[in-house]
C-alpha cells in the first residue's frame, strides 16, 4: 500500500518544481568547466564551490530552522584557522586537517548552543555576532598561535593519500564533488518528517512544539550541522588561498554567505548553489570597469533581489507555476492508522493539582486542580483575563508553572518540555490560526503525524484519514493560506486528532464560525470524545458550550469559583457575579485571556 | 582593463585619452579577445583600490600606471588594472585572471602583506615576477625568487624610525602606538627589535583597531607612562586623529610617526599648526622635492591624477620603471625580467635599488619633519643601510 | 580630571552613535525591516558635508539643515528603490536590498571623492574650551548639544505632532493605519527620510573630529545594530542607551585596559546582558513583526 502512495517526488527537497531547469543549469556549468574554462574561470568556479558548501550549511540554521545566525562566517573562519594551524604549523596532511576543521567549529557550536540557542530572533543574531567578534579579536591578538593579523602563510595544497588535485580542473572537480556530497547529505537531512517540521517551526514555534516537535533539538542539530559545513568550506578556502588571515573571520564573509542564501533562495539547497555561483561570478563579469565594478555589482544585486525576492530558485518556481501550471498532486489513499498502543493506567486521562502561575506579582492562575476522564468534555469559562488560556499554556508547558503537578495518562509530566507532553498524549488547538502559510491542508495535517509515522507517505495517508473524519477531505489540496475560518478549524481539528491524543485542549474553537459551522464542530468534538478522547474546551460562547460539555469549570482571577454540570453552572450565583456582578469589575490580569 | 596604456601614442594626448579610456575600455572589455598576443609586454596592475586600503592601493595603482605610460620608446606595453579588494582570495583570483590573458611579464602586486603571501605560490607556479611596495617583512623571507619589494621593509624603516628617536632626538622612553592590522603588528615587532638594539625599551606599547575613533584613551594611557617621545605606527586616518588629539591637549612630547604621516592626504586632514614638530619615517617624500627628475614626477602625477603623490606611488613607479628599463635592455621573458631585477642596480627617483638576494630592493629610509607653517614636510635625515654586495 | 574629560568625549561619541542607532530603529519600527545601509548613509552624509563645505565656506551648523535635507531626499530614494518594491516580500529581502544600497553608496563615493579620508567643517569652531582644568574641544560640546536637540526633536515629532501620531500608528499596525485613512506608503517613505536625515546629521558630526572614509560605514552599522538590539529590539530609549554604552566601552573602558580588551569586554557584556535580559535592556518593542 505504502509504495503506491505518491508523496513528494524525491526531487522536491532539492529544488521543488524547478528541477529540470536546475539540472540543465548544472550541466551547463559542468560543461563550461570541463570544456571551456581557463584557469581563471576554474578558480572562480572553485571559490564558488567553497562558498556553496558554507551556504548549504547556512541554509539549515537560517533557511530551514529560521534562526538568523551571524556565526556562519566565524565557523568558516575557524575551519580555515584549524587547517592553517594543524596543517601548516603542526604539519598534518589533508586527511587529518579536513576532519579537524569540520570538528572544531562543530564543537564550538555545541558549546555555545546552550546559552545562545534559547535566545529569540535578533538577540540570537546579536549573540552569534558577538561570539564572532570575540573570535576575530582572538585571531588578531593571539599572535603565537594564529600569526596575528599577518595570519598563517604557506598552507599546503590539498594532498589526499598521495593524490594532489593541484589547481585548475582537478581542484574544481574535487571541491564540487564535496559540494555535491554536501548537497545530498543536506537534502536527505531535510527530507521526511523534517520537511514537515521545519516550515511549522519557522512560522509558529509554539504550534510546532504542541505537535510534539522538539524544536530545541532541531535547532541544535541544524546549528551544529551548519557549523560543520562552514568548517569544511573554511578548510578548502585555506587550501585554495594558501594563507589564513583574520579576513576569513570578518563580518563581510558573513554578509556574503547571507546574501548568497537569500539571493539563491532561502532554505533551498539548490538556492545555496545558485546564489554562490551568481555572487562569485557577478563581480568578475564587471571587472572591466575598474573602479566602478563594485558599484555595478551593487546595482545588479539590488535589481536581482527586487526582481526575485524569493531568490533565484523561488523565482524559477513561481515562473514555472505561472506558465506551466502543475497538475494537482494525486491524493494518497486514506489509511486508518488504528489505535495507538498506550500503556494501561488508572484514573483520569488528564489531572492537574494546584497549578499556579504569576506574572509580575499578579496571580494569573492560582492553585487550580482539575481532572478530565476518558471520553469526557470539560468546559472552562470565565471572564476575560480570568486565566483560561494561561491554564492551557501551563498544561502544555508553553508557560512554566510556578507550582503544581500535571499527570497525563497517570504519568507525572510536571515541568516537562512541551513536545514531551504532546508526545505523552496531549493535543491542543490555538486561539489564533496556526496552520503554516505555505503548503496545503494535507501537508498541515501530515505535520501532526510527523513525530508518529516518521515516513512521509504513511503520514500523508493517515493525515487524509483524519481529514476525511472531520469532513475536510475535499480541502486536502487547498493551500492553507486561502482556507476560510470554518475550514481552518476543521483542518486544525483534523491535525490535532491525527495525533491520536489522549487529551485534546481547545482554545475558543467556535470563535468566528457561523452557527451551522459551530453545530458541525460540536458534532466532531462529540465524536472525538465518543472515541475516548478527554476534551477540554475554553469558550465564551455559551450557546455552543453548554449543550456540548459534560461538566463546566468557571475561573475568576485565576481560581476555580464554580464547578458542575452545565445546568448547575447556569444557575450558580458566583458565576453570575463573576460575569455580571457590580462587585466584580473586569479583572485586570496581565496574562492573556 | 580600464588602463590599456599603449606606449605608442602621442604623449600630449595621453591625459585626455586617459579620461575617455575607462569608459571606452568598459565598453570594449567584452569584445577584446582575452589573450594579448600583439603586445610585447604585459604588466597587469593588481592592487586594492576598494576597501580599507583603497588610499594606499590607489597610490600604488597611479604610480604603476604613470610608469607604464612613460615607458621607454620602442616598448609596447599591455596593462590592465584589477582591484584585489582586501581579502587574500581576491588577490589570487586577480592573478589567475591576469595570467589567463597571456602570461604577464611582471605584475604590479598589492601592497597588502596577506595578499602578497597568498599570491606568492601562484606567482612561482606561473613564473611571474611580483613588483610590490608592501612593507610586510615576511613576504621576502619565504625563499620565493619571484617577489621584488621596491619599498624598504619594516626592518629598514623601523630601524630608521627608532634610530631617529634615540640618536637624533636623544630620547630613551618611547611610547609605541601601533595598529592591530598586519601592517601594525609587523611594524611593532620590528620597532621592538630596533629599540632593543639601541638599548632602549618602550615604556608603553598598545595596538589600536583602525575602527577606533577617539584617541584620547590611548593618549591618556601613553602619557601616564611618562614617555619622552611618542612613536606612531598607524594608518593615515588614525595618525591624523592621534596628532590632532595630542595637539588639542597641548602635549609637548615630540611625535615621530610612521610612513602614513608623510602621505599628503594625511597632512591634508590637519592644520599646519597641529603638525608643528611632528616627524615621520618614510622611504621618500615626493612632494618635498629634491632632484629635477623627482619634481617632474610629482608634476606629472598631479597633472594626471589630480592628487598628490606619496612614497608608495613613487616606489611602485620606480619598480615598474626598473622592469621597463630591463625590458628595454632586452629582457623580454618573465625569467629574464626576474634575473635583471635580482642582479642589476637601478637608479630610481627615490633611491638606488638593488636586491639583497631575497627581493628586498630598497634599503633607504628618510625622516621628514613639519615646520608648523606648511603641510609639506622637509627631509631632515636619510638612513642608508649598507647596500648588499 | 582626566576621567571627566573621557566622559565628555564618550558622551560626544555616544551622542553621534545614538543618532545613527535612532535612524536605524525608526525605520525598523515603521517597516519591521533592517536597514543595513544606515552606516553607509552616515558615511554618505559625511562626504556630502565635505562636498558642500568645498563650495560653501560656512560653519557646519549652517550646513547641517542642508545636509539633513539632501540626505532626507536620499532616504526617500532608498525607500523607493530598496524598500517599497519589497514591502510585502520576506523581510530578509530588504536586508539584502539595503546591503546592495550600502555597496552602491560606498563605491559611488569612491568614484566621486576618491579613497582619501576627509574632514567636514566643525559645527562652530575648532577651538578648545578650558573649563576648570578640563580641555574640551568646542566641537565635542556642540556635538552633544546638537545630537541632544535632534534626539529631543525626533521625540517631539513622534510624540507631540499629528504627523508623528500618524507615523507611530503606521509603525504599530500598518493595516489598521490604512483603514483609518493614513497614507501608509507616504508615512513609510517619510520615516526613511527622517532616518537618513539623522544619519546625515551623524555623518556631519562624526566626520569633523573623526574624519570619514568610504569604508567607514561598515563599522557604524555593527555599532548601530548592537545598540538597537541590546537596548531592546525596536525600543527608541534602548537604542540611545545602547549607543551610549558602546561609546562608554570605546572611550572610557579603553582608557584603563587595551582597546582589544575593551572590545572583548563589550561583547562579553553583550552576552551577559542577553543571558539575564534575553529581550534586551528595555524589552522588546517591535515584537514579532521584526
UniProtKB/TrEMBL annotation, chain A:
<dbReference type="GO" id="GO:0015658">
    <property type="term" value="F:branched-chain amino acid transmembrane transporter activity"/>
</dbReference>
<feature type="transmembrane region" description="Helical">
    <location>
        <begin position="292"/>
        <end position="312"/>
    </location>
</feature>
<keyword id="KW-0067">ATP-binding</keyword>
<keyword id="KW-1133">Transmembrane helix</keyword>
<dbReference type="InterPro" id="IPR003439">
    <property type="entry name" value="ABC_transporter-like_ATP-bd"/>
</dbReference>
<feature type="transmembrane region" description="Helical">
    <location>
        <begin position="123"/>
        <end position="140"/>
    </location>
</feature>
<feature type="transmembrane region" description="Helical">
    <location>
        <begin position="223"/>
        <end position="241"/>
    </location>
</feature>
<feature type="transmembrane region" description="Helical">
    <location>
        <begin position="40"/>
        <end position="58"/>
    </location>
</feature>
<dbReference type="InterPro" id="IPR027417">
    <property type="entry name" value="P-loop_NTPase"/>
</dbReference>
<keyword id="KW-0812">Transmembrane</keyword>
<keyword id="KW-0813">Transport</keyword>
<dbReference type="GO" id="GO:0005886">
    <property type="term" value="C:plasma membrane"/>
</dbReference>
<dbReference type="InterPro" id="IPR032823">
    <property type="entry name" value="BCA_ABC_TP_C"/>
</dbReference>
<feature type="transmembrane region" description="Helical">
    <location>
        <begin position="92"/>
        <end position="116"/>
    </location>
</feature>
<dbReference type="Pfam" id="PF12399">
    <property type="entry name" value="BCA_ABC_TP_C"/>
</dbReference>
<dbReference type="InterPro" id="IPR001851">
    <property type="entry name" value="ABC_transp_permease"/>
</dbReference>
<dbReference type="GO" id="GO:0016887">
    <property type="term" value="F:ATP hydrolysis activity"/>
</dbReference>
<dbReference type="GO" id="GO:0005524">
    <property type="term" value="F:ATP binding"/>
</dbReference>
<dbReference type="InterPro" id="IPR003593">
    <property type="entry name" value="AAA+_ATPase"/>
</dbReference>
<feature type="domain" description="ABC transporter">
    <location>
        <begin position="350"/>
        <end position="582"/>
    </location>
</feature>
<feature type="transmembrane region" description="Helical">
    <location>
        <begin position="65"/>
        <end position="86"/>
    </location>
</feature>
<feature type="transmembrane region" description="Helical">
    <location>
        <begin position="253"/>
        <end position="280"/>
    </location>
</feature>
From TrEMBL, chain C:
<comment type="similarity">
    <text>Belongs to the binding-protein-dependent transport system permease family. LivHM subfamily.</text>
</comment>
<keyword id="KW-0812">Transmembrane</keyword>
<feature type="transmembrane region" description="Helical">
    <location>
        <begin position="93"/>
        <end position="114"/>
    </location>
</feature>
<keyword id="KW-1003">Cell membrane</keyword>
<feature type="transmembrane region" description="Helical">
    <location>
        <begin position="140"/>
        <end position="159"/>
    </location>
</feature>
<feature type="transmembrane region" description="Helical">
    <location>
        <begin position="6"/>
        <end position="29"/>
    </location>
</feature>
<dbReference type="Pfam" id="PF02653">
    <property type="entry name" value="BPD_transp_2"/>
</dbReference>
<protein>
    <submittedName>
        <fullName>ABC transporter permease</fullName>
    </submittedName>
</protein>
<feature type="transmembrane region" description="Helical">
    <location>
        <begin position="180"/>
        <end position="205"/>
    </location>
</feature>
<keyword id="KW-1133">Transmembrane helix</keyword>
<keyword id="KW-0813">Transport</keyword>
<dbReference type="InterPro" id="IPR052157">
    <property type="entry name" value="BCAA_transport_permease"/>
</dbReference>
<feature type="transmembrane region" description="Helical">
    <location>
        <begin position="41"/>
        <end position="58"/>
    </location>
</feature>
<feature type="transmembrane region" description="Helical">
    <location>
        <begin position="64"/>
        <end position="86"/>
    </location>
</feature>
<dbReference type="InterPro" id="IPR001851">
    <property type="entry name" value="ABC_transp_permease"/>
</dbReference>
<dbReference type="GO" id="GO:0022857">
    <property type="term" value="F:transmembrane transporter activity"/>
</dbReference>
<dbReference type="GO" id="GO:0006865">
    <property type="term" value="P:amino acid transport"/>
</dbReference>
<keyword id="KW-0472">Membrane</keyword>
<feature type="transmembrane region" description="Helical">
    <location>
        <begin position="256"/>
        <end position="276"/>
    </location>
</feature>
<feature type="transmembrane region" description="Helical">
    <location>
        <begin position="225"/>
        <end position="249"/>
    </location>
</feature>
<dbReference type="GO" id="GO:0005886">
    <property type="term" value="C:plasma membrane"/>
</dbReference>
<keyword id="KW-0029">Amino-acid transport</keyword>
Amino acid at each position: 500500500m505504502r509504495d503506491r502512495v505518491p508523496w513528494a517526488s524525491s526531487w522536491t527537497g532539492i529544488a521543488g518544481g524547478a528541477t529540470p531547469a536546475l539540472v540543465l543549469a548544472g550541466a551547463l556549468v559542468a560543461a563550461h568547466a570541463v570544456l571551456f574554462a581557463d584557469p581563471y574561470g576554474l578558480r572562480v568556479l572553485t571559490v564558488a564551490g567553497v562558498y556553496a558548501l558554507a551556504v548549504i550549511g547556512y541554509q539549515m540554521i537560517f533557511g530551514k530552522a529560521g534562526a538568523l545566525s551571524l556565526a556562519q562566517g566565524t565557523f568558516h573562519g575557524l575551519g580555515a584557522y584549524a587547517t592553517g594551524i594543524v596543517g601548516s604549523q603542526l604539519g598534518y596532511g589533508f586527511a587529518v586537517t579536513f576532519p579537524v576543521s569540520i570538528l572544531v567549529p562543530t564543537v564550538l557550536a555545541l558549546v555555545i548552543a546552550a546559552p545562545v540557542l534559547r535566545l529569540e530572533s535578533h538577540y540570537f543574531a546579536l549573540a552569534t555576532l558577538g561570539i564572532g567578534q570575540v573570535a576575530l579579536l582572538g585571531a588578531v591578538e593571539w599572535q603565537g598561535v594564529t600569526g596575528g593579523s599577518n595570519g598563517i602563510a604557506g598552507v599546503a595544497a590539498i594532498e589526499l593519500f598521495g593524490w594532489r588535485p593541484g589547481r585548475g580542473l582537478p581542484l574544481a572537480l574535487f571541491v564540487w564533488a564535496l559540494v555535491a556530497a554536501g548537497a545530498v547529505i543536506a537534502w536527505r537531512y531535510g527530507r521526511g518528517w523534517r520537511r514537515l517540521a521545519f516550515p511549522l517551526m519557522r512560522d509558529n514555534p509554539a504550534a510546532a512544539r504542541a505537535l510534539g516537535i522538539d524544536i530545541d533539538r532541531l535547532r541544535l542539530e541544524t546549528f551544529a550541522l551548519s557549523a560543520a559545513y562552514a568548517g569544511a568550506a573554511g578548510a578548502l578556502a585555506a587550501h585554495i588561498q594558501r594563507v589564513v588571515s583574520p579576513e576569513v573571520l570578518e563580518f563581510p564573509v558573513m554578509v556574503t554567505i547571507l546574501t548568497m542564501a537569500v539571493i539563491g533562495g532561502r532554505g533551498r539547497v539548490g538556492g545555496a548553489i545558485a546564489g554562490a555561483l551568481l555572487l562569485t561570478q557577478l563581480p568578475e563579469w564587471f571587472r572591466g570597469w575598474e573602479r566602478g565594478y563594485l558599484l555595478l555589482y551593487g546595482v545588479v544585486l539590488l535589481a536581482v533581489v527586487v526582481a526575485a525576492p524569493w531568490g533565484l530558485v523561488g523565482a524559477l518556481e513561481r515562473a514555472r507555476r505561472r506558465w506551466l501550471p502543475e497538475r494537482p498532486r494525486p491524493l494518497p489513499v486514506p489509511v486508518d492508522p488504528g489505535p495507538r498502543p498506550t500503556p494501561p493506567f488508572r484514573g483520569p486521562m488528564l489531572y492537574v493539582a494546584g497549578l499556579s502561575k504569576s506574572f509580575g506579582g499578579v496571580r494569573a492562575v492560582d492553585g487550580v486542580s482539575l481532572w478530565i476522564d476518558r471520553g469526557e468534555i470539560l468546559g472552562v469559562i470565565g471572564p476575560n483575563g480570568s486565566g483560561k488560556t494561561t491554564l492551557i499554556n501551563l498544561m502544555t508547558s508553553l508557560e512554566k508553572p510556578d507550582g503544581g503537578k500535571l499527570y497525563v495518562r497517570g504519568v507525572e509530566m510536571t515541568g516537562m518540555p512541551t513536545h514531551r507532553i504532546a508526545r505523552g498524549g496531549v493535543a491542543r488547538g490555538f486561539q489564533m490560526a496556526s496552520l503554516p502559510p505555505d503548503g496545503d491542508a494535507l501537508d498541515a495535517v501530515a505535520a501532526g503525524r510527523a513525530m508518529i509515522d516518521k515516513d512521509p507517505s504513511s503520514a500523508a495517508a493517515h493525515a487524509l484519514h483524519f481529514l476525511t473524519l472531520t469532513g475536510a477531505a475535499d480541502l486536502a489540496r487547498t493551500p492553507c493560506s486561502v482556507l476560510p475560518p470554518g475550514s481552518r478549524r476543521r483542518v486544525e481539528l483534523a491535525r490535532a486528532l491525527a495525533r491520536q491524543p489522549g487529551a485534546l485542549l481547545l482554545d475558543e474553537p467556535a470563535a468566528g464560525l457561523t452557527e451551522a459551522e459551530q453545530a458541525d464542530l460540536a458534532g466532531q468534538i462529540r465524536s472525538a470524545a465518543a472515541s475516548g478522547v478527554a476534551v477540554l474546551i475554553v469558550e465564551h460562547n455559551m450557546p455552543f458550550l453548554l449543550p456540548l460539555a459534560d461538566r463546566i469549570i468557571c475561573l475568576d482571577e485565576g481560581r476555580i469559583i464554580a464547578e458542575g454540570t452545565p445546568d448547575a453552572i447556569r444557575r450558580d450565583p458566583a458565576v453570575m457575579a463573576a460575569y455580571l456582578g457590580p462587585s466584580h469589575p473586569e479583572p485586570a490580569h496581565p496574562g492573556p485571556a | 582593463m580600464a588602463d590599456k596604456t599603449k606606449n605608442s601614442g602621442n604623449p600630449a594626448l595621453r591625459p585626455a585619452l586617459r579620461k575617455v579610456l575607462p569608459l571606452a575600455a568598459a565598453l570594449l572589455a567584452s569584445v577584446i579577445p582575452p589573450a594579448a598576443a600583439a603586445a610585447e609586454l604585459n604588466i597587469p596592475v593588481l592592487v586594492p583600490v576598494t576597501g580599507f586600503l583603497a588610499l594606499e592601493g590607489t597610490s600604488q595603482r597611479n604610480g604603476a600606471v604613470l610608469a607604464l605610460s612613460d615607458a621607454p620608446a620602442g616598448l609596447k606595453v599591455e596593462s590592465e588594472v584589477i582591484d584585489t579588494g582586501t581579502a587574500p582570495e581576491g588577490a589570487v583570483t586577480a592573478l589567475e585572471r591576469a595570467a589567463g590573458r597571456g602570461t604577464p611579464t611582471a605584475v604590479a602586486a598589492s601592497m597588502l602583506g596577506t595578499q602578497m603571501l597568498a599570491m606568492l605560490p601562484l606567482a612561482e607556479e606561473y613564473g611571474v615576477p611580483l613588483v610590490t611596495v608592501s612593507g610586510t617583512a615576511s613576504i621576502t623571507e619565504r625563499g620565493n625568487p619571484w617577489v621584488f619589494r621596491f619599498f624598504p621593509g619594516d626592518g629598514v624603516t623601523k630601524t630608521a624610525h627608532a634610530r631617529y628617536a634615540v640618536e637624533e632626538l636623544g630620547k630613551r622612553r618611547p611610547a609605541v602606538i601601533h595598529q592591530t592590522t598586519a601592517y601594525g603588528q609587523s611594524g611593532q615587532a620590528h620597532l621592538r627589535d630596533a629599540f632593543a638594539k639601541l638599548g632602549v625599551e618602550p615604556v608603553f606599547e598598545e595596538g589600536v583597531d583602525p575602527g577606533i575613533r577617539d584617541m584620547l584613551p590611548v593618549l591618556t594611557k601613553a602619557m601616564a607612562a611618562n614617555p619622552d617621545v611618542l612613536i606612531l605606527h598607524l594608518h593615515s586616518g588614525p595618525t591624523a586623529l592621534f596628532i590632532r588629539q595630542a595637539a588639542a591637549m597641548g602635549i609637548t612630547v615630540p611625535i615621530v610617526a610612521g610612513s602614513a604621516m608623510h602621505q599628503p592626504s594625511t597632512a591634508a586632514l590637519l592644520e599646519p599648526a597641529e603638525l608643528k614638530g611632528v616627524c615621520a619615517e618614510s622611504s621618500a617624500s615626493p612632494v618635498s622635492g629634491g632632484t629635477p627628475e623627482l619634481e617632474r614626477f610629482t608634476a606629472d602625477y598631479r597633472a594626471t591624477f589630480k592628487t598628490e603623490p606619496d612614497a608608495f606611488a613613487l616606489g611602485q613607479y620606480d619598480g615598474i620603471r626598473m622592469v621597463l628599463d630591463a625590458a628595454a635592455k632586452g629582457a623580454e621573458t618573465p625569467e629574464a625580467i626576474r634575473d635583471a631585477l635580482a642582479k642589476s642596480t637601478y637608479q630610481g627617483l627615490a633611491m638606488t635599488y638593488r636586491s639583497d638576494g631575497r627581493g628586498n630592493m630598497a634599503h633607504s629610509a628618510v625622516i621628514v619633519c613639519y615646520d608648523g607653517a606648511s603641510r609639506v614636510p622637509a627631509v631632515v635625515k636619510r638612513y642608508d643601510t649598507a647596500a648588499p654586495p | 580630571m582626566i576621567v571627566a574629560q573621557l566622559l565628555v568625549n564618550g558622551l560626544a561619541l555616544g551622542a553621534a552613535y545614538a543618532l545613527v542607532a535612532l535612524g536605524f530603529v525608526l525605520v525598523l519600527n515603521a517597516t519591521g525591516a533592517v536597514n543595513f545601509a544606515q552606516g553607509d548613509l552616515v558615511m554618505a552624509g559625511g562626504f556630502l558635508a565635505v562636498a558642500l563645505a568645498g563650495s560653501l565656506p560656512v560653519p557646519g551648523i549652517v550646513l547641517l539643515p542642508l545636509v539633513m535635507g539632501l540626505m532626507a531626499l536620499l532616504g526617500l530614494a532608498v525607500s523607493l528603490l530598496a524598500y517599497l518594491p519589497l514591502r510585502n516580500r520576506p523581510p530578509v529581502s530588504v536586508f539584502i536590498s539595503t546591503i546592495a544600497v550600502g555597496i552602491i553608496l560606498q563605491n559611488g563615493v569612491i568614484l566621486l571623492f576618491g579613497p582619501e579620508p576627509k574632514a567636514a567643517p566643525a559645527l562652530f569652531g575648532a577651538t578648545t574650551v578650558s573649563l576648570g582644568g578640563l580641555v574640551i574641544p568646542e566641537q565635542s560640546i556642540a556635538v552633544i548639544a546638537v545630537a541632544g536637540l535632534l534626539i529631543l526633536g525626533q521625540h517631539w515629532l513622534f510624540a507631540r505632532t499629528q504627523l508623528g501620531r500618524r507615523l507611530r500608528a503606521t509603525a504599530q499596525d500598518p493595516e489598521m493605519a490604512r483603514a483609518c485613512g493614513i497614507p501608509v506608503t507616504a508615512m513609510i517613505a517619510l520615516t526613511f527620510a527622517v532616518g537618513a536625515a539623522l544619519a546625515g546629521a551623524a555623518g556631519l558630526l562624526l566626520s569633523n573630529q573623526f574624519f570619514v572614509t568610504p569604508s567607514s560605514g561598515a563599522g557604524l552599522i555593527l555599532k548601530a545594530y548592537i545598540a538597537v538590539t541590546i537596548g531592546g529590539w525596536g525600543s527608541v530609549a534602548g537604542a540611545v542607551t545602547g549607543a551610549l554604552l558602546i561609546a562608554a566601552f570605546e572611550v572610557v573602558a579603553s582608557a584603563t585596559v587595551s582597546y582589544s580588551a575593551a572590545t572583548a569586554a563589550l561583547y562579553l557584556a553583550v552576552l551577559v546582558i542577553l543571558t539575564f535580559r534575553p529581550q534586551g535592556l528595555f524589552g522588546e518593542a517591535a515584537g514579532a513583526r521584526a
